[in-house]
Amino acid sequence: MSNGKTSNMRKREVVGDFINNEWRSSGAAETLDVVNPATAEVLGRVPLGTAAEVAQAAEAAGRAFPGWRRTPAVERVQYLFRLKQFMETAFEDVSRSITVECGKTLDESRAEMRRAIENVEIACGIPQLMQGYNSEDIAPGIDETMIRQPVGVSAIICPFNFPGMIPFWYMPYALACGNPVIVKPSEKVPLTMQLIFKLLEQAGFPPGVVNLVNGAREAVDAILDHPAVRAVSFVGSTAVAKHVYSRATANGKRAQCQGGAKNAVVVLPDAEMDMATKIIADSAFGCAGQRCLAVSLVITVGEARQVFTESICNAAAKRVVGNGLEAGVQMGPVISAASKQRIESLIGKGRGEGASVPVDGRGARIPGYENGFFVKPTILVDLPPHGEVARTEIFGPVLGLMHVETLDEALTFINSSEYGNQASLFTSSGTAARRFRYEAQAGNIGINIGVAAPMAFFPFSGWKESFFGDLHGQGLDAVEFFTQKKVVIERWPKEWTRRF
Ligand code: NAD
Fold this sequence. Notes:
Layout lengths: L4 E3 L9 E3 L2 E3 L5 E6 L6 E6 L3 H20 L2 H17 L1 H12 L3 H18 L2 H4 L3 E7 L2 E9 L2 E5 L13 H6 L4 E4 L6 H13 L6 E3 L4 H9 L3 E7 L2 H13 L3 E5 L4 E5 L5 H13 L9 E7 L2 H15 L18 H16 L3 E4 L18 E4 L16 E7 L2 H9 L3 E2 L1 E5 L3 H10 L4 E4 L15 E2 L2 E2 L6 H7 L1 E9 L2 H4 L3
Parallel strand pairs: 8-9, 8-11, 9-10, 11-12, 13-14, 13-19, 14-17, 16-17, 19-20
Antiparallel strand pairs: 1-4, 2-3, 4-5, 6-7, 7-23, 12-22, 15-16, 18-21
Helix pairs in contact: 1-8, 2-4, 2-7, 3-4, 3-7, 10-11
This protein binds nicotinamide-adenine-dinucleotide.
The site of nicotinamide-adenine-dinucleotide (NAD) has 28 residues, from α8 and α9.
């Protein structure tokens, strides 16, 4: 078929689902090719799972729930301790799998897996993290206690850009709190979760506690509609995040949905320019710009304009682009031919809106990888602030530059964005830094930081159209999300205690 769908008669291996501790072939009739974006080689096929596979997983998870929640927290975390060890042992294999199916460099994949493991480590503290609290004698002889209990079967729906890490913003906490999980990876990058689920299998979770279903839109909608699923964690584009949030909550589930972004960084004239350039280039072009915390716009203030424009153009032009598996490569391909085409068309649109393109990454040809989906680093100078490109998530290695005269103007622009994932400031002024931290309307703030990615023991925030819900992934927010609070009030009259 011309849209990339294949009939399931082709010989390439189809990835499996993992349900009730068994690897199963999906009953789905349709499959998609899984493609290495550096080479365009087909790596395997992914089934487009349907409501039938989701129901099997949800029912298995539902059956596992009573036993898993009764397993003491100190025992539940033993599975996670084992998982961590298996993840350390398989670290290089899993990192390589991320690079092969997603395109980022091996070092970027390793960093991703480090954060995944960190989340397992933090969730191992659950015996203490999920404790409740109590008050004795709220009235004579009456005590009140808050207990945290697991919320129930929890589903995790993932995007393509962090195939190893993003499931771990949620999964370790859900499991540690006593919830069975269903993971639905992105259909573009299903291979890494195959490896991770082999590690989960090795860790020996009871049947039905960890489940993997492959698929796309149909599988997601089935998750959102299945009554056994009580909580949904989603990461992806804003349009789909809105859909998932509204359908999940309309069906009475709790939901936390991370969406898209358009992150701006402000460079003040007192910034340390060499450091700012290096960090901003890493943020804009790292992972080929396919990060929800990638800097997409730089707003230079006053005299910062000239020096920063020159230095960032040099840094962009020098970046080594190629197959992420090869040593010395600093940036890999984007995820697909369609993505490359969309990014190149947005570069053209930026030019049409009046920006100049002193570094133009369109039409990139990487020797030996002529079929790969490469876009080289691109700089759009004097991007009009009210044009479409200054407001659209590009999700590629394209950095737009804009200029203003004051920090006030920069903040006004940032706060007018529909997104609120990240905003950063480069400065040596504590006063400017404090003002920015205080006033910028974004959930993750960087001061002299290009990718303000929260450690596992902080929530991965996001505001406005970048997040729908109340509680975020990671850390204490995740513990709150994966537990429901029960309040118990007990009366033990004094007269009764006298009997003993
Ligand atoms: P996507 O929205 O296309 O897909 C995400 C998931 O939703 C996938 O599992 C996919 O199968 C499913 N899906 C896609 N269309 C659907 C539909 N119509 N109905 C139901 N389910 C559907 O996102 P992507 O392209 O895989 O990932 C890139 C996006 O994710 C970017 O917008 C990026 O900013 C965002 N992202 C955000 C964060 C964050 O923390 N805010 C982190 C990573 C990625």
